[in-house]
Amino acid sequence: MAATGFNPETSLVEIVEIPSHRWFVAAQFHPEYQSRVIKPHPLFVDFVKAAMDFQK
Length: 56
What we know:
This protein is of the alpha+beta class.
């Protein structure tokens, strides 16, 4: 498991990933607050892309 995202104000870990896993990301923040229909948060875009790739 790797700590890959940090809060710039507190230096606390906000995102962890497991690089050896196909797609494993855990987030402590709320990406849905930054997501819009026309411009979704990159976390959601990447999750959907990974799901579509896995389905193939």
